[in-house]
Amino acid sequence: MKSGLSALGVLVVLTVSACGQGAAGQTPVPAADGAPAPVSSSSAPAPDRGVDPCTLLDPKDRSTAGITVLGVAKEINGARACDWTVPATFGVTITVDEKNGLADLEVARKTATKTKVGGREALKVADKKAADGTCAVLLGMGEKASVQIDVSNTNFADTPLACERAVTVAGLAEPKLP
């Protein structure tokens, strides 16, 4: 039980630390200034690197999810990720883990609810007792890969709203996964 809480703590720390920060040596995607957005809306995986998390939300998807900014590519614990931070509102980070399937992830069972997104097995993870405004949806992507959608409200309140946002983003990203 303690290790499960520890895993959720890591999830929350990653979520909170992920919002708005680019990895060292990576160039953030510039803000839209009338020029076409450099983030691709292609659903095809990036050549030789698998799924590019920044391509999982195209402009229409971002609008549907209430995301008014472009994503910033980064790396979290060796996995590729993309971070969208809506100032003074919330942040979303999508991480593609190409080494761990849904069954391999350590999640506190009392904070996880099995669900489906599209036709995929998924887990919705939120600590309702902590009421910290964070929620994650973990999508299976085959036996040995997964995609994690983390949402963190900037006021660290309203966990149900964070979960609503995470489920919405997961539903938008899921059809683009292999």
Q: State the helix count.
A: 3
Return the string of H and E elements: HHEEEEEEEH
Low-confidence stretches: 1-48
- First CA to last CA: what distance? 33 Å
CA radius of gyration: 15 Å
Strand order of the largest sheet: 1-2-3-7-6-5-4
- How would you characterize the largest beta sheet? 7 strands, antiparallel
CATH class: Alpha Beta
Q: What is the CATH-assigned architecture?
A: 3-Layer(aba) Sandwich
Total strands: the figure is: 7
CATH topology: Protein Transport Mog1p, Chain A
Compute the average pLDDT: 79
Instruction: Indicate the overall shape.
Output: globular
> Which range best describes the helical content: under 10%, 10-25%, 25-40%, 40-55%, 55-70% or over 70%?
10-25%
Number of spatially distinct domains? 1
Structural class: alpha+beta
Q: Kindly estimate the percentage of residues that lie in beta strands according to DSSP.
A: 25-35%
